[in-house]
Amino acid sequence: MARALVPLWAICMLRVALATVYFQEEFLDGEHWRNRWVQSTNDSRFGHFRLSSGKFYGHKEKDKGLQTTQNGRFYAISARFKPFSNKGKTLVIQYTVKHEQKMDCGGGYIKVFPADIDQKNLNGKSQYYIMFGPDICGFDIKKVHVILHFKNQYHENKKPIRCKVDGFTHLYTLILRPDLSYDVKIDGQSIESGSIEYDWNLTSLKKETSPAESKDWEQTKDNKAQDWEKHFLDASASKQSDWNGELDGDWPAPMLQKPPYQDGLKPEGIHKDIWLHHKMKNTNYLTQYDLSEFENIGAIGLELWQVRSGTIFDNFLITDDEEYADNFGKATWGETKGPEREMDAIQAKEEMKKAREEEEEELLSGKINGHEHYFNQFHRRNEL
């Protein structure tokens, strides 16, 4: 019986249906965004946001996002969504940021908060789960922050990740997987990846071995070494007829070969650290440390400082599906990135043309004034 072929579009639709989208914001409904986003009133000096696509854009409406408007200010704003836990699931956080003002010093990062965050009092001391995105200040700081909250402390990725520093819109993506791997992407391209356990220096923060675990290790060490060596015994060998178990003890069966080293385990025993590592791996021991698991995710926001304003934040997404995030990025930033650069190039040419015309006018005006000055001096000399 022939099997019916499933159309590719149906597979794609099924994939989208299986994805869980926790939060998605494109600011396509005008000023209604103010019903979803809450401006913090913790400090009256906090800067304000407006909805704007900037001075140049790929699409005037689709490229509208939250834009900082005041120089030398702190900013604090957030949006709430239905709380969820990413335990056992992939977590993808994605958004676009455009430093139209050619950022000299300021943040372009986002924060993911617990559901119990006090939005009206959001400030620099508010607890967050994840901080992710670019931070620029002078010539020294041009980095992508990836900070995770773990054991009541904030831990930053030890690998230096460089951010984009131009004035165009860029797509930033963070992927945290349940196998403790991660990926940081800019404009859809992976720029850093690895192990959450090691790239955040979290291995030293695991709980110390308890007395019960030490006793368990001693017993396991002996049993494991004995079981391991049994694999190298000569099963066809038989005990000598004159062997007396009461007098001679247990009969040592001959080995086919000497047990080799295996995964760092020696025939005479097992190194304690190796055993603990295997135990943690085999029993999902690492997951109890919540290295990348957050039980009550419920808000996303911007809490940052900028010397010069003008940054635009857009296309926010939190999901559990990497493919959905990739497609969303292509459908938003991917569609407008080219036209945005084209508009910027056209504006640059127009500005250059205008500057040349103004310069020519100044030169022409200077020549005319010079001729008039010479003419007046000539006539004054004749009159004398």
Automatic annotation (TrEMBL):
The gene is CALR3. It comes from the Eukaryota. Gene3D superfamilies: 2.60.120.200. Keywords: Chaperone, Coiled coil, Differentiation, Disulfide bond, Endoplasmic reticulum, Glycoprotein, Repeat, Signal, Spermatogenesis. It is found in: Endoplasmic reticulum lumen. Disulfide bonds join C105-C137. Belongs to the calreticulin family. PANTHER family: CALRETICULIN AND CALNEXIN (PTHR11073), CALRETICULIN-3 (PTHR11073:SF3). GO terms for molecular function: calcium ion binding; protein folding chaperone; unfolded protein binding. The keyword 4Fe-4S does not apply. An alpha-D-glucoside binds at Y109, K111, Y128, D135, E303. This is Calreticulin. GO terms for biological process: cell differentiation; ERAD pathway; spermatogenesis. One of its GO terms (cellular component) is endoplasmic reticulum lumen. Component of an EIF2 complex at least composed of CELF1/CUGBP1, CALR, CALR3, EIF2S1, EIF2S2, HSP90B1 and HSPA5. Residues 1-19 form the signal peptide. InterPro entries: Calret/calnex (IPR001580), Calret/calnex_CS (IPR018124), Calreticulin (IPR009169), Calreticulin/calnexin_P_dom_sf (IPR009033), ConA-like_dom_sf (IPR013320). Residues 342-369 form a coiled coil.
